[in-house]
Fold these 2 entries.
Entry 1:
Amino acid sequence: MRQARSHLLTVLTPEGIAFSFHLAGPLTRFMAWAVDAAVLAASMSVVAIPARILGVFSADLGQAISILLFFAVSVGYRIFMEWKFGGQTLGKRLLRLRVMDARGLQLDFSQVVVRNLLRFADSLPLLYMVGGLAGLITPHAQRLGDLAAGTIVVANPVLPEPDLDQLLQGKYNSFVDYPHLTARLRQRTSVQMAGVALTALLRRETLDPQARVELFQGIADRFRELVVFPTEVTEGMSDERYVRNCVDVLYQSK
Amino acid sequence: MSKGDRFFDGIMILDLRKFITEEKPYWAELESLLSRLERKIELNLDLKGLQRLHYLYQRASADLARISTFSAEPATRLYLEALVSRAYGEIHGSRRRARRFMFGKWFFSSFPRTFRRHIRAFAVSALAMLVGSLLGAALLILAPDAKGDLLPFGHLQGDPSERVAREESAAGDRLADGKATFSSMLMTNNIKVSITTLALGITWGIGTLVILFYNGVILGAVALDYILAGESVFLLGWLLPHGAIEIPAILLAGQAGLVLGGALIGWGESIPMRERLRAVVPDLVTLIGGVALLLVWAGVIESFLSQYHEPVIPYGIKIGFGVIELILLAVFLGRCGRASQASKRPSGEVRA
């Protein structure tokens, strides 16, 4: 049903569809925990206000309410947030992490409670050493609470929205003047190669100048092996432009 | 050309723009339906709604399969993966749809039924504390000088008779301005101990047994100390009102820890550990929730009743109160929820 790599959990549905979850690393999880610890500390001072007001009338009652509220917030904050906000506390939301059921199913309330109550074991002997160690050695980076509750923590990194229009249009694509060659290109190009070419174009701004030149040269050479466009069209055309024209042909039929 | 390349020869690359434009309305409809279902947990779709959800899920799945095969740009694929995974969770989730949490039903039916379902774990929990108590009592007899090391609380380390005389002759209310604070401290401390007892079940139950055993040692040593000093009546009057609830509550927390440990070990079970754990997780929450409530009650009683002795409150009343509590607790755990026991298994009964 499932196969796991070091940082991925892949779920295969009965419909034969596979989707993957990116497992959160220990560093981001620790950062989310630190943010939540700060939020908890801030919440404590807010919680102290009604207790202080009550303390004006009865010091005993004010103190009792403050002890109970502190306890309820410290135990209940993560449970409440993860249950009400789809597996995210404020820290997890900030770090783009989410608690999920390890089978890709809906997160159950009891799972949220158990994974959080088991923090008492994970935090032993200090600074989450047991939980951190468990996260490093378990295949799905689960601390003990996650193991018991059957949950995982996944990362949802921000991906820039690709702008196909900006990539593929704007300039005239001279390859489309040769429909028999573009048809051949579409026929001969493998799925993997088309994907590599498109991804390279989408990420071109993130590449070093030298790496960018070499990468597009390699991809353009592969395309040239598949189909030879007339010299009058390709003469003076940069490798990157060549790849751009090919991707335009591959992904957008006119 | 590689072997892999030849395999894909002849496949036409997808017209991405056309594909996205055509499919986007269906994805948006599925997303909105899923958001409604996730926002309102008790929402039940009618047959038509369910059929539509299933259709949209299958359509999005097919789109994901297509777009993965045609190596579209990553953002669309990730968006579709997220959408399909949400719909998958909604459609394939084996649990019953969550309903509004009904406290009365949970406390008076689910909690005692869960206790009875794992009665053997409770028996082991009680046995661990009993063995600890016997050892505590034995240690006190064999090494009376070690009493100071054995008992962690200062007020228990002195002579029992002196304490009894001091507390019975106290003129004023020593907790006059601190009963509520003392009560809340007792509640939070005992609930923390219970949570730790449950959590240490993850050590295959060993940590849970150690906590139960250690608490038993203290209880046995204290009890024998007072009995040997001829203060049995004071002991019962002091411990029973809150102990009749508090000690069983700690045993129930131990039961939860041992249920967790048992699921990890899985003696004689053929199902994988992950499934065993999944089966007991709702029961752990039910047990620890019940324990927390019992400890709130015990905290109130310990602060407002247990600390007052004769002549303020006669021991007969205190002991009688404790015995009645114990009987009611036994009846509650042993009998409540039997009428509905034949119905469904209470997996996932605790819902927020």
Entry 2:
Amino acid sequence: MIAVLGLILGIVLGLVLQPAVPLWAQPYLPIAIVAALDAVFGAVRAAVEGLFDDRVFVISFLANVSVAALIVFLGDQLGVGAQLSTGVVVVLAVRIFSNAAAIRRHLLGA
Amino acid sequence: MSAPAPPRNDRRDAVGALLGQIWDDALDPGYAAAAARRSAKEQSAPERRRRAVGAAVALGLVGVLLAAAAVQTRTARPVVTEQRHQLVQRIHEQTRLNDQLSAAIASTGAEVDRLKSAQLATTAEGEQLASQLEALGVTSGALAVQGPGVRVSLDDAPADSPLVDPTKPELSRVLDRDVAMVVNGLWAAGAEAMSVNGQRLTSLSAIRTAGDAILVDYRPLTRPYLVSAIGGPTLESQFAAGSAGASLRTLHDAYGIRYGIEGVQDLSLSAASGLTLRYATTEGAP
């Protein structure tokens, strides 16, 4: 419950404050969002399966976002940024889909 | 969680297995481990609350990220449109400037011509020079000319023509060498001045091809191709009787290329643009 409130508060805060994304961070924003979504979907799945754990969620969220950003950064430095980004997005998207499917099975039973 | 995969050896299966593994391990294994630990020992209430707040803060961060990205994409779009608009405006401006300059060149050139002929008309020697200049201007393309002539049109074979070979449709298209053949045939038949699709030919004009387009003096032409030539009354018959006329008939009969030859009483050809003077120098001279 508190967690959902936190999400809503975060969105409202972001919309009201309109934080300017610094130029150097702009390439990482989309990847960071996909990674964050992955962590959120994992958390929701864990919650509907009765496995949710706050500590695991916080750590997996922070680690996901920073590792994804790090991979993109490394890829940019090595000149394979686009390919690595694609790889990261593919893996995260597959996970999001899998988790969403599990959530759907749990909630709808189909 | 996953059933043990059967042994796979080829590469496609390896990729499939990799994706399958990602799919199966989608839920962070940490959740299961934490649940196992939790069931072993019960947590105190304050610790649970602290952790719930941590999760809320993390979700709040997710929200800020989402909102920032949304704001970012919304504000970035007008900038891109604005830049494109500015580029379009600059292109229009430069085109207009170019047109103005071309007009200025044309009017100044006419003024120069008028002054030149006025100056030359004052002496007998000058008059001789003037007629020489005019003859040279006609052949070099420097002067606009008007007079009777011939118009030869060339076009690709119609798509439904039975002569079009479906495996080699490019054979039934007009090529640069076909246009060059017509031009050379007209010169040979006594043409004095010529233009292709309004592009005046000079003694240095090149008829080439680049990709699918035929270029005359590096300007692309679109079909149909229209060669206008000014010449004497025998130009049309001499052209049709010459080798170029025969080649045209062969192209028509074998590949379906369409062509037409018609005599015109009053043709006017514009002067060639971009003519520059070239100076010969001896070797070793500065």
